[in-house]
Amino acid sequence: MHLKRRFLEMFGMPHCVGAIDCTHIAIIAPSEPAYRECVYVNRKGYHSINVQMACDADLFIINICARYPGSSHDSFIWRHSMLRDLFKDGHLPLGQHGWLLGDSGYPLEPWLLTPILGEEASPEEDLYNKIHVLARGAIEKCFGVLKSRFRCLLRHRVLHYSPTTAASIINACAVLHNICKLYGLPDPPEAVEAEHQDDEDEEGVTPHYENGAALMAKGSASRQYVVHFLSRAS
Question: Where are the domains of the chain?
Answer without folding.
Answer: 2-227
